[in-house]
Amino acid sequence: MGGQIRVEPEDFQVDELPAYEACGEGEHLFIRVEKTDLSTPEVAQLLSKALRIGERNVSYAGLKDRRAVARQTFCVPSRVEALLPSIAIPRVKILDWKRHRNKLRTGHLAGNRFRIRIRGVVDAAAGRAVLDRLRTTGLPNYFGPQRFGGAGDNAAAGKALLRDPSPSPGETEARSGQPSTEAHRGVDWFRRKLYLSAFQSSLFNRALAERIRRGTFARALRGDVMRLESGALFVCEDVQADQARLERFEISPAGPLFGPKMLPAAGEVARAEEELLSEEGISIEDFRRGGGETQGGRRAYRLAVPGIELSAQGADAWLEFELPKGSYATVLLRELMDGDPR
Description:
Layout: E1 12-18, E2 28-36, H1 40-51, E3 59-60, E4 69-77, E5 92-100, E6 109-118, H2 124-137, E7 139-140, H3 154-163, H4 169-176, H5 189-213, E8 225-228, E9 233-235, H6 239-247, E10 251-257, H7 267-280, E11 297-300, E12 302-303, E13 309-313, E14 316-324, H8 329-337
Parallel strand pairs: 1-4
Antiparallel strand pairs: 1-6, 2-4, 2-5, 3-4, 6-14, 7-12, 8-9, 8-10, 10-11, 13-14
């Protein structure tokens, strides 16, 4: 359907959906804020400065888009509660706060709700046709371009880390008191985790693209690892029965996040995954070098999008939908708009 997004920050609105509500008591304080044209780490830094606490004392469940109006929760020690009414941070509005017994940590969210303005729509009917198809087949659950860095080279850095068995700089220096190897020098724990995850994600995206190319994206294959909505996994043995469940969105094929603890597929599905690793010159054993960051797992190849709405407003359109955590609005927009909307 064409069009443009993020012409103005207000065109891209995100509401974080919490995994649970704060209970009202405890030594942690959940602060819900509305940020405009700021990244999540930038807001964390501004909060730490305004509340006179270290940045390590500010946590959040997930990263939200920078060029957007986003409402999300941050967590700080409850001892600073008295300061909240008096602080003023440009482009940050404090909506409310409440105490809780436990600290908010990465991943403690259910998902996100989006309301996005698409300006200069070329063909709204084409957009509606795409949405009809996605309601039937599901949305391809690609990792979005944000996963791979501005230059798109995070995955290559992750592969290089796996090929070099040296530990991370912190690990090396802690064990021996000596600097790490040249390949790892300057790669801190956060970036190491980011790069290794990006490499796993790139392999998943390739496996997903191959399913679409072969016309098996919304089909059950013998040997597929199937994922239930609960997250439980099993290997497909009865194709006919599992196909019926797949069409009802009770289950979905789950692609590889390679690592030693990943549940293996069987038959032709396993051979396709092994071929993908062989093309990269990597084995499952190589992922052991990533330690806790590359244990492996499975990710659904598709997502149900039953509640998505597209409404016209003159030459523009508003798109409203929800996605679970770990999925990307940019992937849906790419399907809808025919291009990379990043």
